[in-house]
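For the sake of transparency, this paper describes our internal protein records without simplification. The remainder of this section carries one protein's record, kept here as part of the documentation:
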Amino acid sequence: MQLQRHSDKIFPIDRTYSPPSAGTGEYHSTPRLQLTSRTMPVGKLEDKIPDQKYVLKRGNYNIRLADSLERRSEASALIKRMYSWRGYNTESTSVSSSHNQTTLEALSGQELVGTLALRLDSDEGLLADKLYEPEINPFRARNRKLCELSKLAIDPHFSSKELLASLFNLAYIYGRVIHQATDFIIEINPRHAGYYKRMLGFHQISEMRTCPRVNAPAVLLRLELDYVDAQVSRLAGVHKPAERSLYSLFLTKHEEKKIANRIWHINEATTFGWNALCG
């Protein structure tokens, strides 16, 4: 299904991007498609970054993978601070360690200013299954490969369209380019939904419900990644301020190929170190 771009007037996004998430990660009876990565690398890494822990360096911020307990603890602290500021329940803000989940961290200098988690669908389920399993299961039945975006938080002093676009861009590269996902889903406060529909092409697929994890209203949005492919091919690298789409701030296909290689190399190094440690 081809999604239509929204061309209505943009309103400023709230200064803190912290959509609510839900779910228990419990086992569900509906079969889950395991996402398998493509054979990587797809070519030589052409532009070495001096500090290889960073996946992307752009402007005055850098983005890395939260691949250690210390980094995940820092991300959890930022999420808790931003959710608390919003009046959300913060008991479920911890960033967990799982082979099905990766967490991105954005830093300005040494200060953590943003984070976003990406969870691959599996037998462990998705956070959104707690409220929206009936809405999610039909996509699984059609052999769609789902990824869930959650735990998005950005310090209001550093928020910008560019930073938000970079986090979503890297999530897209990780989910789509590396793991061949077909759809993103995100559980979000209804007051933020309009922005995500206009700027990224999400569609709402549920009614509003109360998310018990954060004690706030939530709706479920879905984004077809075929649509994202087309928007990236058409708009990436344009950087037109008037463009009503975050995709104009995405990396080009050539650039995303190099980022995918970089993520692959970092993951390989992390896996090798962990295996060596465990014997």
